[in-house]
């Protein structure tokens, strides 16, 4: 087992003497070479949407070259973490602005729809009042015409009962008396 492990480890590492120090591990920071730093751009661009774009994540100006020590790496990492935090804060504020804008749009839309519904309700109430007034006027007119009809029928009935019937009775009595006189029949009144 030990021989196998040593063979593998010796194959993986180059041959060097025990007095030699192990080689230093070098980080590959070529991805940071193309990132513009704040000091690298001498000309400022006129950006109209500067508030809409998030701040770019850039390494510290002093660490634009590849770090050689662990302290440089820590410093560069902390500066990158700070820029990421700034970027996240900016994104958070942008999201909050979008949410507030959509909330205000929804509130305006709700207000407009509420006003439209209120206007529709008011118009429906007006139409209902108009129809109710028309029904009431028709009912009142029908009731008045009914009362007039009843009054006229009662008046005609009273006329018939008071004048027409006694006149008819008198004319019938006269006709009967004329017939009696004509045929000489004595009246049988007790």
TrEMBL record:
Annotated keywords: Coiled coil
Source organism, top-level taxon: Eukaryota
Coiled-coil intervals: 107-141
Region (Disordered): 1-64
Ranges of biased composition (kind: Polar residues): 8-19, 35-52
The protein, known as: Uncharacterized protein
Species name: Cynara cardunculus var. scolymus (Globe artichoke)
